[in-house]
Structure formats: structure tokens, C-alpha cells
Design brief:
- The protein is of the alpha/beta class.
- The strands form two sheets. Strands 5, 6, 7, 8, 9, 10, 11, 12 and 13 form a nine-stranded parallel β-sheet that branches. It has a seven-stranded mixed β-sheet with strand order 3-2-1-4-14-15-16.
- Helix 6 runs parallel beside helix 7 and helix 13 crosses helix 16.
- The longest helix has 17 residues.
- It is globular.
- Bound molecules: guanine and zinc ion.
């Protein structure tokens, strides 16, 4: 049997960012498209009939009018929060203390970490997500658990040991030195091994002393190929707390900048309540902002100003922020991003939403040459969207005048029932 497979259906391709160029000029849906997969990679994308004629020995899978899109890339999640997603009634700091920290303490048990890592990857793949950038817990083995689970599934994962040396329970605190040592050992074990990528991970400034931030800044300088992920300006109470904890800092971003934790490979989650100086610095260094819209609503944080940040050409990724976010679904997350932008007077097009959830997030992870778009050479990480997955969506599609209108209905109302299949490194999760 040939190692080649052709997926036939409607294909979504990008030639640029629909935030930099009108979407009509850089995003296309080919109603008779095809994707040729060879091994783990995409070998060609084009007209389905032409691909079949050129590769007659290939296995063909016809998805009819389904939309073939790049696998979703979730640029900020906390896999250890899988089992406590949708916990009621708290805002950020109380939510962390009441629900999050007790759950993260359970990860002292390596078997529990392995169980949740596997559960999380299986859940997210069923929702069409093929790459995740995730926090772990303070336990180094929680990072091993996620990378190992991803490795056995052939999947790309960005992860890092969450570092906290203050303002957290005793059993969830490390030190500046142990955070440095453990993170360094994990980088040696995982960074660049297969599809694993390491992100140095200070949780956020309130849970790290200046000494710990400095140690992690030094580690990043020693390993500039690594990513760095953290939280920034999520809620007003948190920002006031940061001001008390770091009286010398000009603003929240400065608590990272002053310790070597601001850079182009930095991922700053939430970033809702930024000062003008912070926006200017992020635009200057091209640090990436990660938009977590279901979380921002669920924990009552506010609405990220995506139109303003996109206008400054700051790289923006999209993320669930599981389990502050209330869904594992990047479709639901795109819908929330649409609603958040409406609060800022902008109606994002379906092409822009899909770009954020795929190529945009891939770009924030500096992985755009491997994932996030259907182009030759990228991994065959592909999601197949059924555009009529439920009765409410199908009756809307009956009225729709274009594939974009139908696609928007699935973005706004779809869930895991819309995921016909997910392909990871050339393998279908359904077969
Ligand atoms: N800030 C610090 N830690 C967290 C977390 O786990 N979730 C969210 N949403 N914000 C945070
Ligand atoms: Zn988070």
C-alpha cells in the first residue's frame, strides 16, 4: 500500500495574515481541494482531481463538502486544570486559591499527572486541536508526563515547569535555584526532541520573587531558542497586587522586562489592561500576546482589545486557557473572540478567526514553518470540519449564500460534533 493519502474536500489555505492584508487577498477556500499526505508531512496542496491524477496509487479519502483546515493550535492552556474546568463563582486570585492550587497539588503523584496528560490530549484532539502550549505544575514530572503523552501520539507540544516560589501553598512552592535547576534539566531532556518544545514558565509575577524571575531570565538567556510563557495584566486586583509586590517597576510588563523575561519568543497570556508603555514595548520587541476570550469572560477579567493590538502588529495567538477558560474547543474560543472584538467595535471575519486559531497561534510559538497552515513541508496536522454537524447549524447552512457564511455558523455554534476527524502527523485519530 502506498504511503500517500489524499484528503479531498474544501480546503482552507493562507498566503498571508488577514490582519495585515485584506482577507480576500490572502485566505482562500477551494471547493474542490485536496491535500496530499506523505508520511507525517504534507506533500502537496491543490486541486483534488489534479492531485489524484498525479498520484494514482494514493489512498483517497473524500470528505465531500467538509472543510479541511490546519489543525487548531491552542497557544495557552493549563493541562493540570482539566479536571476542575468550569469551577463556579470566583475571580482570579480566589479561583487560583480555591480550585486551582488544590488540584495542582494532586500532581505530586506522577501516576495522576500521566492520567490527566493522556485525558487532556485525547479530549483536545477530539476537539480538533493538534498543538498545545501548556503550563504544567511545579513538579518536573508533570512536564515529563505531558511530553511523553504527546510523543506517543506523534504530537507537537510546548510545555514548561510552572515556577512559583511565593504566594502559593507550601507544597506548590519551589525556590529560585530549584526552579532554575529543574527547568534547565527539563530543557536538556526535551527541547527539540522530536516535536517537543520547551517554554520557560514563571506562572506570573505575584508567585515569583525577583530572585526567581532573575534566575529564569538568566536561563532564557542561556537557552534563547526556548519560548517563555507567563501571564500579564489579567485582572485589576492582580495588577494592584503586582504594583505592591514590585514597587520599583514601571508597570506589570516591567516586572518581566527588568528580569530578562521580555523578548520575541515570549508569550504573554491575557494582556487585557495594558498601559500605553507596555503596548509600545511589546510592539517594539514583538513579544506575543495570547488572547484567551472564554477565560476572560468566565473569570470576569475583561475584554482583550484585539483590534488595537493587531493594528500595532503585535503577534497574537488564540487560546482556551483551560481551565480558567470554560471550553476545550477552539471553535468555541473563536466564537468568544468574535464576541470580544464586537465589544471593541470590530466584527472579525471567519477567515481572521480561523487564521488566529491556526497560523496566528503557530506564529506566536515560532512554529509557522511546521504547523498552522496547509502547505507542502508542514506536518500533516489537519482538522476536518463538518459544516452541518447539528440540526441548528444545518438549518442555518440551508439559508447560507456562501461557504464563508456556513463556516461562520460552525465557528459560532459548533463544538466537538463538528470535528469529523483530526489528523496528527499523517495519522487520523478516528482510524
Ligand atoms: N494567572 C496565574 N495563574 C493563572 C492560571 O492558572 N489561570 C489564569 N487564567 N490566570 C492565571
Ligand atoms: Zn493561564
Amino acid at each position: 500500500m502506498s504511503d500517500k493519502t489524499i484528503l479531498l474536500g474544501q480546503t482552507l489555505t493562507f498566503t498571508g495574515s488577514p490582519f495585515e492584508t485584506p482577507w480576500q487577498d490572502c485566505v482562500r477556500i477551494d471547493s474542490a481541494g485536496g491535500v496530499l499526505i506523505e508520511g507525517a508531512r504534507i506533500a502537496a496542496v491543490g486541486n483534488g482531481t489534479a492531485l489524484k491524477a498525479a498520484h494514482p496509487q494514493s489512498r483517497c479519502i473524500s470528505y465531500g463538502n467538509d472543510l479541511i483546515v490546519p489543525g487548531f493550535v491552542d497557544a495557552h492552556a493549563h493541562y493540570p486544570q482539566t479536571a476542575m474546568i468550569a469551577s463556579w463563582g470566583k475571580r482570579l486570585i480566589d479561583w487560583l486559591n480555591t480550585y486551582t492550587f488544590p488540584e495542582e497539588a494532586r500532581f505530586a503523584d506522577p501516576a495522576y499527572a500521566a492520567d490527566i496528560a493522556a485525558r487532556y490530549l485525547d479530549l483536545t484532539r477530539a476537539h480538533g486541536t493538534t498543538t498545545i502550549a501548556s503550563y504544567s505544575t511545579i513538579h518536573p514530572h508533570s512536564v515529563d508526563a505531558l511530553f511523553a503523552a504527546a510523543q506517543s501520539r506523534g504530537q507537537s507540544v510546548v510545555a514548561g515547569k510552572t515556577c512559583m516560589d511565593r504566594n502559593a501553598p507550601d507544597d506548590l512552592r519551589d525556590t529560585a535555584q530549584s526552579a532554575y535547576d529543574d527547568s534547565k534539566a527539563l530543557i536538556a531532556r526535551w527541547q527539540g526532541k522530536g516535536r517537543a518544545r520547551y517554554a520557560i514558565t514563571p506562572r506570573f509575577s505575584p508567585t515569583s520573587t525577583p530572585e526567581q524571575l532573575s534566575a529564569l531570565g538568566a536561563l532564557w538567556a542561556e537557552h534563547p531558542d526556548c519560548l517563555m510563557q507567563t501571564h500579564l495584566s489579567e485582572q485589576p486586583d492582580e495588577i494592584a497586587w503586582v504594583r505592591d509586590l514590585f514597587p520599583q517597576a514601571r508597570d506589570y510588563l516591567d516586572t518581566y522586562e527588568a528580569h530578562g523575561l521580555l523578548g520575541a519568543r515570549g508569550l504573554y497570556g491575557h494582556a487585557i489592561h495594558l498601559e500605553p508603555r507596555e503596548v509600545d514595548r511589546l510592539a517594539e520587541v514583538r513579544g506575543a500576546l495570547v488572547h484567551c476570550p472564554t477565560s476572560n469572560s468566565f473569570i470576569g477579567s475583561g475584554q482583550f482589545d484585539l483590534p488595537r493590538m493587531a493594528a500595532r502588529q503585535i503577534p497574537i495567538g488564540l487560546a482556551t486557557d483551560t481551565g480558567g477558560g470554560s471550553s476545550f474547543s477552539m471553535l468555541r474560543t473563536m466564537a468568544a473572540a468574535y464576541e470580544a472584538a464586537q465589544h471593541h467595535g470590530t466584527a472579525l471575519h471567519a477567515a481572521q478567526l480561523l487564521w488566529l486559531a491556526t497560523a496566528g497561534s503557530a506564529r506566536t510559538l515560532h512554529m509557522e514553518h511546521e504547523i498552522g497552515s496547509l502547505v507542502k513541508g508542514n506536518y500533516a496536522d489537519i482538522t476536518i470540519l463538518d459544516l452541518e454537524s447539528t440540526t441548528p447549524i444545518a438549518q442555518r447552512v440551508n439559508r447560507s449564500g456562501s461557504v464563508w457564511e456556513s463556516t461562520f455558523a460552525t465557528i459560532m455554534m459548533g463544538d466537538d460534533r463538528a470535528i469529523r476527524d483530526t489528523w496528527i502527523a499523517g495519522n487520523s485519530i478516528k482510524s
